[in-house]
Amino acid sequence: MNFLEHLNKEFACSKEAVLHTINKLPDAKTVVVNVGMGVLSHDTGLLNIRSFKNFIKDISELVNANLKRRAVIVVSDSLKKTGHRYFRQSDDGGHSAKHSFNSALSALVHNDIVNIFYDGFLNYNIRVIGFSVSSAETDAAGELNKKLRTIKGIASSETKPDDVKLKAIRDLLSDKRDAGRGTAFKAKKTAETIRQLFKNFPRVVPIIMEDVSKDDALCEEDDGFATMIALSVGADALVSISGKGMLYTADPAKTAKALPFYCFDTGRRAPFDDARRAELAAKLNAAKKVNARNKSIPMILTPYNSPYTVRDLFDRNAIDKICADGEYPNFTIFINSQKVELPIERRPSAGSVVIDDNAAKELLNTSSNLLSVGIINILGEFGPKSVVSIVNKDLIEIGRGVVKLSSGDIKKTMGQPKGGTVISRQKMHVIRRLTQLNEKQCQ
């Protein structure tokens, strides 16, 4: 059984939405990548230099492989869970002392990590700007637009405009502001800054470090802050790199019967027992949140066990192996099939409109609308705004479109010159060209 057969068996209701979403990944213009530092570290807590270099190369390829300058935003925490617990429990001087100590520690760690990112991305001609964000204070927010306007015209023989702008950005990142505002507000303001950053520096990768020395949830575990960033910037995809790998029906560390879960429809009930659902609550809530709006953002859960895991998610050849050849993916994709707007040709047909030869030729050879005068029969019952098949007298489907009227109203006006437009060209997809139609009729 290949992946396409697996979808037919397990996800028949969501199959078209899943394949359409996966097929669109290579066209993504803005991608948010959430990676916990624990994924790029040894079990000892020390940084895994090889994994770190591979990750930088992976993200660089993701940026450079797109001629339209794909924007990639990296969101990460600064400390592992073990360190998080340790610094919580090492408080001997009260909350204020702990807060100051943890803030200083996080600032130091953030600076070191961003410097490593900076040195690595420099080899690929990509700049890095570091952000440090927490619920208590932020070192990056949305005043960049004002800052850049004030220096827009500054240029001299000794100072390059880019250097001036970068200095303004660095000055901005050192400001301590909005200490009493919530995490959602910080995400929104950070997103505003990032949008301005991309306008001025297309080849830049923002590194957003979430301060997990506070009492916030770790972004590696629940993707909470990365979700807020993805929603605020209007991302086309959110990639969550997890040390636990893709989604499984059960915890693979506890049972050998755990099966990989390749796609998850947030618009339907989670197919897990109560215990497993509780374990995955934070991850599932993040997936539901990022897919709740009209423009749903696919969330991809993937391990990081090869140098090119992330890049392959957006590579057309790798995606074709999944969507065309039925190769199983090494990730779990979260979507809301009710929010995915499928192209007309991939939507299920509610009925058929039978047209005469003259109308068929007009649709196949020109950009005409389908008028009621060319309709000779209606098959099935459907309402207005339904997707229907357009078939010729031999019942061969030549197109598909969204009707303006119900089947009953179309029957009243079909064949009449003054009946008006039934399907506009903007809401129509022609499936067969005239040559294909003639070949089909000759068989």
Please describe the topology of this protein.
Blueprint (H helix, E strand, L loop, with lengths): L2 H8 L4 H10 L5 E6 L13 H16 L6 E7 L3 H9 L4 H29 L4 E7 L10 H8 L9 H13 L9 H18 L3 E7 L8 H4 L1 H10 L3 E5 L21 E3 L8 H6 L1 H10 L8 E4 L6 H5 L2 H8 L8 E4 L16 E4 L1 H9 L4 E2 L3 E5 L7 E5 L5 E6 L4 H7 L7 E3 L4 E3 L3 H9 L1
Parallel strand pairs: 1-2, 1-5, 2-4, 3-4, 5-7, 6-8, 9-12
Antiparallel strand pairs: 7-8, 9-11, 10-14, 12-13, 13-15
Helix pairs in contact: 6-7, 8-10, 10-12
Please characterize this protein's 3D structure.
The protein has 17 helices and 15 strands. The strands form 3 sheets. An 8-stranded mixed β-sheet has the order 3-4-2-1-5-7-8-6, sandwiched between helices. The chain has a 5-stranded mixed β-sheet with strand order 11-9-12-13-15. It folds into 2 domains: 3-335, Carbamate kinase (3-Layer(aba) Sandwich), CATH 3.40.1160; 344-442, PUA domain (Archaeosine Trna-guanine Transglycosylase, Chain: A, domain 4, Roll). Strand 12 and strand 13 (397-402) form a beta hairpin. With 443 residues, it is of the alpha/beta class.
